[in-house]
Amino acid sequence: MQAQHRRWSAFVVFLVIVAAAASLPFLNLPDFYLQQVFRILFFAGLAQSWNILGGYTGYLSLGHSSFVGIGGYTIGCLYLLFHWSPFLTFPLAALSAAMLALLIGVICFRIRGSYFLIATMLVLFIMQTLAANLRGLTNGADGIDLPLFTSDFNDETRIWFFISIALIVLVTLIAFLIERSRFGLNLMAIREDEDVARSMGVRVVHCKAMAFVISAALAGLLGAFYTYRNHVIEPFTAFSVEMSAAPIMMAILGGSRNWMGPLIGAVVFDVVSTSLALAIGNEYSDMLFALFLIGVVLLLPDGIIGAVGRLRYGKKAGSEPTSGTVTSIRSATKLHEA
Amino acid sequence: MLNVLALGILNGSIYALVGAGLSLTYGRQNVIDVANPAFIIVGAYLVLFFSQRFGLDPYLVTPLALVVLFALGVVVQVLLINPLLSRPDFEMHVQSALVLFGLALFIQVCLVLAFSADFKGIHTSYTDSVIQIAGLRLPLVKVIATGLACVTLLSLYAFLTRTYTGKAILATYANRETAQLLAVNVKRIDVITYGLGTAFAGIAGLVIALTFSFSPASVLPWTVIGFAVAVIGGKGSVLGTLIAGLTVGIVEAAVSVTISANWTYLAVYSLLLLVFVVRPSGLLGERF
What is the value of pTM for the model shown? Predict the structure, then answer.
């Protein structure tokens, strides 16, 4: 079965939807909606970047916001210390996040499964503590203020909106290309069974490190952009557990096996949580949200995408992994024979 | 110097107690039990609630809280964890973590609604008492907590190594399939293990209620400490948990005295990361 999500036509549909979203600022909508769409775009990008390691490779990082934070702090510190314009230092943000990922990878790829999950969470807390205490570099808990670049509020909102559109296209394109490549197949083979993948000749460590670095660099870029847009960075919001947990939930909700899942998950997640909070107040919405999360994981194990697929093909839940294992091992073998 | 050591040991034994429940439930069947620390705070609130309701000493109402927590643990295992057991390993990790994270969030919101988000603590006639040992002035509640930690951990150790059920728990840890072949009812063992884990959270809750102030938001910091202790000690290893708890306590005390209190967490995290790199299965954990 040539998966539909791997066809270019699917990606074109995505581009059309994004282009439609790009016309929103011209419709004179209330600012609230624009902000909402902006947030969805940012978190969709984050979920997509998390999914490259978490979804394709099956290594679940709870520390994804470490990269968001280090991206933000890269532009923040360079501005604070040398007054470099944040726009020019965006690539450096991606670079520093990639370096951090490489460092973590060296330490953490020896360990698997639940240990990896906890180790990445630890890295997040370490980064948080460092950012709060290295006062000379980060201004400590007071955080760093970044300048506005236009005085016109509306222009500023629009510019950020278009940048976020460009970023979501970039991140999704990368995820899409990975899925179509033999690199992507290697990652999926690692997810299904790392030992088998290794014995089939997949360069496991190399692939995992690549996936981690790509995932982190994208998160760093998104983090730099998000930080500059907020004009402020501060340790406990930059390196927050929520920022790590939200993309994971989005990816799982949508379905973490292909690039469409995180996008769909981000939209559903944000719309549901925002409308709950508006409808019944924060405390009760948190409670319902927790129940929603539990329900989704228990009832929709492979996310919305998986549920739709099951409806269409009449497959039972849980039958996918076996066939997935076989196909990805086969494709991995084939590629290395070639 | 001696002071630091004493403080480290007192706090460390409390940490060991916090990690004990987690060490029982975490890692087993690929479940990442992020909900256990939430049950610790539930335990603290239960002790507070019962002791106010019945006008009794916190220690006397603890058994009641433990029974409630054990029952809650059984419900959680049956309703939330059992449905995940048939899924592939790598999905189990994240899905159990997500489900139990959702549960922890749910518990936190319920606690805020029931008891408000304010910090609470239990004050008894002996809260501020101090006893003197070898020239050190030690708070009485912490000394009792240390004794309690030693007694409960030793009895847990005895339970795991001396009774049939305890051995069955260890066997299920070591190899689920083999345990099943040896006629261990692993489903029942799962339920008992999780219930025991939450009951242990209740004892930790009692100690925290008496020695620290707590609020629904305390779940996160105790989660970090709990995982640090459970991972350093090695999953399922009671002695490891005790050693890890004391290590964390002493490192924390030493760093806060010699460098600054800001860096204590960093020291604990780095210690944990070091254990991960050098010996992922923990100090006394076996490589299952």
Answer: 0.82
